[in-house]
């Protein structure tokens, strides 16, 4: 049997102990809870001791004030309070006190970041926190100075879905699941890291991180795995759990990440908390090491290549935060080459609370700031490193500052920053330290970018981001090949587009369409492409996913907009830049700044009305819209521009299995040439042809059908999945097949597998129902196939996969279901699994009764499997068991009990008393008295956390036993009282 405690929880506690934490294991010894109420998550005595120790000058009043202040933060919601508490932990608080020189304001530290060893690091398992409805018990909670910064949920690696179960638990704790508030958000007001771990794997997030955004930590830089093996005294192998615990909770690293690698960002009218991923943390540390070695050979700068979509802007922000803390009033210069990127970087820094970044307004403004302003953070376009407003001016650029305490972070370092403007920047700031950031690899000839910035500091490649789930795979598909533009001659293209014209008409038209771009914008061609876009989007892009149309020019963008509207196409908006010389028909479609913001917000919002954005240059870099799945590309793009543009569709989103490029221009036909400047190893998975999935799809199909001899024998297939391990293997194979079908559909290569997908989904749905297996959901199958499967299994009369199965307590519906089954064998299977599920659900409420029923069920199943019971005889005995469970409710209801909890509690008390030899009348009377006594208390708010209520309840229960006419010793009364109180805690959550 899997043992979560032995296989994950206890090893986690031991690992934390080796990292320097004071560990209490409640499985090994009782822990004296110092809290007055379990609705609090702070260990106040430890907090008070730490604040006093770190601020020994505090008087008693101010000590009380500081301790209260961190706990009594009031915000509009839990995330708001989390942000406020983070601010106090990082920036501390102030109090007014007379320390001998009159009253003054002094800083009070909650945490000593400079001397980590002076803080109190305490880890505790099974820490109870009361929410509005239930008490939660995370496996491990980590406190720094009494403040709960970490929550770790441990699962056995032997259970079917440890990751899914752990994440579901964390989601429940945070009240992030739909329905009733099940968790205790109080614990997460302080949360820095939430971790799901199952020894062989581990993923991390923070408060309100979506389940699909919890990520692994693959590199504990600067330590290698071998060093961690020694640190934890392991034998030759490092399970992921240990790497994660070190990476996040080694005390110095934890405080570093709390202080420098945590930001809050406003997005779509809500706040998102973001913590560093391993590649961001590693890159910043490596950059700081390179800075420490400045002046040495090949250590005067470098390049960080983190592939598009992996959080490059945040890496820049984290580096800036560290530099601001470590250096003496440094000047930080953030350089981009496009206004949109400059605005984005500036906005990111502002939204994340970075101290007052300044945007340079002009060439003169930039020069003035660099000459005279120390300690500022300046964002600027590279073009402001000109001698005048004329970019072609050859005047020599002046030196603006020889200060070494200037750090230049150049975004998209490969584009313009290795030419004259970069030389001007180097001339202006000859002693600055330069870090280039790029989302695309450096060109393979190793000139330009490396010559300008130095060698790689850190890399996070396309392959690595796909493996981590930081991005999704990008597939491409060429459509309407007869009007592709790339690689064709003008004459052949012209003949194709205007094939329905006479020679005289062609001659007249040819005067107007002399260039490839003219042909791209020809209305007959746009008519055909726009119709194809409408048909593809409506038929093949499932909700809520959206798309972008990329065109050759503003003229083409406007024509696409008008044509899509004429076709009653998806709701679209044009996002193009304003030009002084634009003709009037383009100006009328050019959005204002506020309109652009509204369009982008509506597009990024899954529920927003905008479904398509039509662009030519804008939003092809630096625009994050995870909901975007498809890009309709009708523009010649190459090299960095191609990689940056297609990355708009590589952001993960729920049920998004891939991004898709629909190519009308023919770029993908010449993909190798388009990306020829890069090493093939760096870009081989940049875009993958849909047709390349044929082999994977075939293999996944073969694996999924291999579990069964005959897919048409559905009942036989379902029964073959009764063993847990076989069902897990089938579930994984089915999801893999489903995901690939989601990627390939509606390509004709999927057609041979459609019927099998439907039949397998019937088996899958029936198996989920039969075995009450909640892990058999459709997570990760893809939105397109999920909808297809749901429609199919509903038409087959199978419960929707996310619904609860029919309970045996619903006599009418359950018995009707049995009647619908095709054989006694199927009915016996359905009954035994339904009874087994009901026993498991109710077991904790009444271990005596349901333990007995469980033993009887297991014995009956064993006899049936061995052939010692006929199907009909087995069904009759299963019916007897089922009737016993149902009759318990009926008996309790006849005694006036109504609620399910009351009923189960009544039965549980009956079972406890039934172990003794009581008379019938005494038995019934005492049971009713005890239940009535308990119910007086459990209706009171927070009864479990209020010790005096529990003590009073205990006294009254003992009194009832004492006053009964049953002869009980003091020891028996004490034992029965304890049993009743334990049952009350189990039943009344």
TrEMBL record:
Keyword Transcription: no
InterPro entries registered for this protein in UniProt: Helicase_ATP-bd, HsdR_RecA-like_helicase_dom_2, P-loop_NTPase, Restrct_endonuc_type1_HsdR_N, Restrct_endonuc_typeI_HsdR, SWI2_SNF2, T1RH-like_C, Type-I_R_enzyme_R_subunit
Lyase is among the record's keywords: no
Enzyme Commission number, as recorded: 3.1.21.3
Domain Helicase ATP-binding: 293-459
GO MF annotations in UniProt: ATP binding; DNA binding; nucleic acid conformation isomerase activity; type I site-specific deoxyribonuclease activity
Catalysis performed (reactions): Endonucleolytic cleavage of DNA to give random double-stranded fragments with terminal 5'-phosphates, ATP is simultaneously hydrolyzed
SMART domains in the cross-refs: DEXDc
Keywords: ATP-binding, DNA-binding, Endonuclease, Hydrolase, Nuclease, Nucleotide-binding, Restriction system
Coiled coil: none
GO terms, biological process: DNA restriction-modification system
UniProt xrefs under PANTHER family: TYPE I RESTRICTION ENZYME HINDI ENDONUCLEASE SUBUNIT (PTHR30195:SF15), TYPE I SITE-SPECIFIC DEOXYRIBONUCLEASE PROTEIN SUBUNIT M AND R (PTHR30195)
Family, as annotated: Belongs to the HsdR family.
Protein name stated in the entry: type I site-specific deoxyribonuclease
Name of the encoding gene: hsdR
